[in-house]
Amino acid sequence: MGSDGNNKTKLEEDICIHIFTVSSAMVGVCLTVIGLIRVVITLGKADTLADDLLASDALLFLTSCLLSYAALRARSLRRMHRIERAADVVFIVAMVMMTAICGFITYSISVSSSAGH
């Protein structure tokens, strides 16, 4: 049982590390896309709420990143589990929101392209 519990703890630490690294990378992705959308808006091609939504999504990814970091730093196993679960939920919500924003951007581009022709 001791070895089994140790393997489970190691797996949970690995998951926290993955959430931490992917969440921090996704903050960068959100900020990059916000910059690209701002360039498109400045050029007068389209105006969209996508940049505002992406800023909110970046905050969710940052929250997930900070929670996973806190889980890695937690002293007690029980506390680590609770924080890790919160990081998981926030990460999944942020990923779903990112997918919805991608659909929104695609729809906005296709509508503005149709209106321009």
**Inertia-based shape:** elongated
Percent in helix: over 70%
Count of discrete domains: 1
| pLDDT averaged residue by residue | 82
Number of strands: 0
Detail the poorly predicted runs. Answer: none
Number of helices: 3
- State the major sheet: none
> Which class of secondary structure composition applies to the elements?
mainly alpha
Write the layout of secondary structure elements.
Blueprint: H1 2-42, H2 50-73, H3 77-116
Summarize the structure.
By secondary structure, the protein is mainly alpha-helical. It has helices at about 1-40, 50-75, 75-115. It has one domain.
Task: Provide structural commentary.
There is one protein chain. This protein is mainly alpha-helical and 117 residues long. The chain has one domain (2-109). 90% of the residues lie in helices and 0% in strands. It contains 3 helices and no strands. The chain has helices spanning 2-42, 50-73, 77-116.
Keywords:
117 residues, mainly alpha, 3 helices, elongated
